[in-house]
Write a structure and sequence with these properties.
With 140 residues, this protein is mostly helical. The protein is 71% helix and 0% strand. It has helices at residues 2-21, 26-33, 42-62, 83-99, 103-111, 115-139. The longest helix is centred in the last third of the chain and has 25 residues, at 115-139. This is YeeE/YedE family protein.
Length: 140
């Protein structure tokens, strides 16, 4: 129960932050990505602030063996760049550039009843299913 409560609170704070920062507005995101046109740098400040807060949070979290839920922390191991990582990052970036939406804001838009959000989430789930099928085929 404690884990669900922390997940709910974290998701709520994250979603509200996305809304307040304008990240759930595809037009604002596309304005940030439009370097050759009317560039809107405000999201760079949002990202910079998020990185600064994240660095402090991770530093504090690394100093504690247990998470707030009482479970041991599990940190990903460092891995180098590989073809899957680069292709995944490129796919994510191109999708973000075309739609002006990434997964977090897509869920916020879906919750707000946005048709664009619904279309993006359906496409995202289809992409995840395709990845699962391809990964399963590669493992055989």
């Amino acid at each position: 129960m404690k884990k669900l409560l922390f997940a709910f609170i974290g998701g709520l704070v994250f979603g509200l932050g996305l809304i307040l920062a304008g990240m759930a507005n595809p037009a604002k995101v596309l304005g940030f990505l439009d370097l050759a046109g009317r560039w809107d740098p405000s999201l760079a400040f949002v990202m910079g602030g998020a990185i600064a807060v994240g660095l402090v949070g991770f530093r504090l979290a690394r100093s504690q063996a247990l998470a707030w839920t009482g479970e041991p922390r599990a940190w990903p191991g460092a891995k180098g760049l590989d073809k899957r990582l680069v292709l995944g990052a490129l796919t994510f970036g191109v999708g973000w550039g075309i739609a002006g939406i990434c997964p977090g804001p897509a869920l916020v838009l879906l919750g707000a009843g946005s048709g664009k959000g619904l279309l993006f989430v359906v496409a995202m789930i289809a992409g995840m299913a395709l990845h699962a099928l391809m990964t399963r085929a590669d493992a055989k």
